[in-house]
């Protein structure tokens, strides 16, 4: 058999794989297209190994290594896709381009800044009136000590201080710009 036939089939497989990677929006289809490209390379390696008559069969050995790496890539890729689907509820690549986590919305659709959850997680505020703030420095059960229950520059009490005084109720302190 002439070397042109497997080379043409390999080029067609690789072209279909490149098209799939560039045009598809579904992550699983993109992974399948990468597999097509790897199989096109494997076909070329085996065809040229047979055509050149290599006594060590290095093309076929390299093909076995590529198959092992492709199997590991599929396992890891599908694990990542499943984790993304659990968090984002989509496998569309256009929706997965943003690296930030989606903002937390409470059960009643509360504003994330009021519940203490933002794009980076818990911001150090209490999630409810019964729960104290984690590391907020606010005095809850007694009089405020030095630096407790007061807002310094860049800080504002969560339940008031719209007048610029920086004093809230002493339970929640929202720090602006530093943690």
How would you sum up this structure, described in words?
The protein is mainly alpha-helical. It is built from four helices and four strands. It has helices at residues 4-23, 27-52, 58-88, 112-115, and strands at residues 117-118, 121-122, 155-157, 173-175. It has a two-stranded antiparallel ribbon. A hairpin with a 2-residue loop joins strand 1 (117-118) and strand 2 (121-122). Helix 1 runs antiparallel to helix 2. The longest helix has 31 residues, at 58-88. It is elongated and about 65 Å long. The termini are far apart.
Bin the helical content. Answer: 40-55%
Unreliable spans are: 114-129, 131-140, 147-159
Average of pLDDT:
73
Strand order, biggest sheet?
Answer: 1-2
Brief characterization of the structure:
By secondary structure, the protein is mostly helical. The protein is 45% helix and 6% strand. The longest helix has 31 residues, at 58-88.
SSE arrangement:
Elements: H1 4-23, H2 27-52, H3 58-88, H4 112-115, E1 117-118, E2 121-122, E3 155-157, E4 173-175
Antiparallel strand pairs: 1-2, 3-4
Which terms would index this structure?
single chain, 179 residues, mainly alpha, two-stranded antiparallel sheet, two-stranded antiparallel ribbon, 4 helices, 6% strand, elongated
């Amino acid at each position: 058999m002439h070397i042109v036939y497997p080379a043409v089939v390999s080029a067609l497989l690789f072209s279909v794989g490149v098209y799939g990677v560039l045009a598809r929006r579904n992550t699983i289809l993109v992974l399948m297209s990468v597999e097509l490209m790897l199989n096109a390379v494997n076909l070329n390696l085996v065809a040229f190994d047979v055509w050149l008559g290599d006594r060590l069969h290095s093309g076929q050995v390299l093909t076995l290594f590529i198959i092992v790496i492709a199997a590991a890539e599929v396992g890891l890729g599908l694990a990542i896709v499943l984790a993304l689907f659990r968090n984002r509820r989509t496998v569309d690549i256009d929706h997965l381009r943003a690296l930030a986590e989606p903002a937390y919305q409470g059960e009643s659709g509360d504003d994330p800044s009021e519940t203490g959850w933002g794009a980076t997680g818990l911001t150090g505020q209490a999630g409810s009136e019964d729960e104290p703030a984690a590391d907020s420095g606010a005095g809850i059960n007694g009089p405020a000590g030095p630096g407790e229950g007061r807002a310094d520059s860049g800080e504002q009490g969560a339940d008031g201080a719209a007048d610029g005084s920086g004093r809230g109720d002493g339970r929640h302190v929202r720090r602006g710009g530093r943690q």
